[in-house]
Design a protein that fits this description.
With 313 residues, the protein is an alpha/beta fold. It is built from 12 helices and 6 strands. Strands 1, 2, 3, 4, 5 and 6 form a 6-stranded mixed beta sheet that branches. It is globular. The mean pLDDT is 84.
Length: 313
């Protein structure tokens, strides 16, 4: 199932069932004042993923949900409010949770390649730049700065962690945060030259046991002085042939954008950020379903671990 939009409502409900433990409602546990919630977080998540998948407006989503479900459907304002209350940190954990499900099916094998790259998803806001053009401050379209940490497998590449920030956020800081929260292991770590400028990041990558294949070049007038950056530059020259695989992270980002869109129908960064993470969750879930399909229909007669079978395919 390589069509990342070909998901049924039943499969969306399965996805919500898989990530439901992350969204256990603590409202009742804390015994907050006020009336209890009429609609569960699970039902709001189902509506959330349907909206991303189909590209519906809130009005159309409510109409379609009325045809799909027999239960009472929330009002437009309630759907908008409840989606805005979804915890982005829990959504990001759902991405890593699905990655662990994929790892389990692959036999928890070490990844040969781990990739990192940044991208942006636009939304309906304007961001003033810090410099002026004439008498007016120049404004550009707002975007959600998104950092993707991806892992390779014989069955394809999938997202292992995600970081988000407002427009023009620092990709290196986002990657450091992802690596601190995500225990990924692999042989080669591939990234472009931007990441070689952070000594803290390079040190973290080496301490995690990776061989960093990160372009580290000297400027026109200055040689590389830091010993750590020199070491990374030497490793890049030694494993330059491995760097040709970096196109795969750009290909993965293109798949997400082509499948679910590169612009969010949202007015605020906070709402747009939730939709961006939701798209990555859907992508990982589709990869997981594809893996199950491959396991059941093509490799069921082979008793070796899945990772070994795929390497020999």
């Amino acid at each position: 199932m390589k069509n990342y939009k070909n998901i049924s409502i039943k499969q969306i409900m399965l996805l919500v069932e898989m990530i439901k433990p992350l969204f256990e409602d603590s409202r009742e546990k804390k015994k907050k004042r006020g009336r209890p919630r009429k609609y569960s977080d699970e039902f709001i998540l189902v509506l959330f993923f349907i909206r991303i998948l189909r590209g519906y407006s809130f009005r159309t989503l409510r109409v379609e949900a009325g045809d799909l479900f027999s239960e009472d459907i929330p009002s437009i304002s309630t759907i908008h409010y409840r989606i805005g209350k979804l915890d982005p940190d829990k959504l990001k954990k759902a991405v890593s949770l699905l990655a662990r499900f994929i790892d389990n099916k692959l036999g928890n094998a070490e990844k040969e390649y781990v990739f990192a790259d940044g991208t942006g998803f636009g939304f309906d806001d304007k961001i003033p730049l810090s410099y002026c053009r004439g008498k007016e401050i120049r404004e550009v379209s707002g975007h959600v700065k998104t950092e993707i940490l991806a892992a390779s497998s014989p069955a394809g590449d999938y997202v292992y962690g995600i970081g988000i920030a407002p427009s023009y956020g620092d990709e290196r800081k986002l990657l450091i945060q992802i690596l601190q929260e995500t225990p990924v292991r692999g042989k080669y770590f591939l990234a472009d030259a931007l990441y070689s400028m952070s000594i803290k990041l390079l040190k973290m990558i080496l301490e995690m046991g990776f061989v960093p294949v990160i372009r580290t070049s000297k400027s026109t007038h200055t040689n590389i002085r830091n010993p750590l950056r020199k070491k990374v530059a030497e490793l890049y020259e030694k494993y330059k042939h491995v760097y040709t695989q970096r196109y795969r992270i750009e290909q993965l980002i293109a798949k997400i954008k082509n499948s679910y869109g590169d612009r969010e129908n949202a007015r605020s960064y906070e709402m747009a950020a939730r939709y961006v993470i939701g798209k990555v969750i859907l992508f990982n879930f589709c990869f997981f379903i594809s893996l199950l399909f491959l396991l059941f229909f093509y490799l069921r007669k082979d008793t070796r671990p899945l990772y070994a079978r795929l390497n020999c395919a």
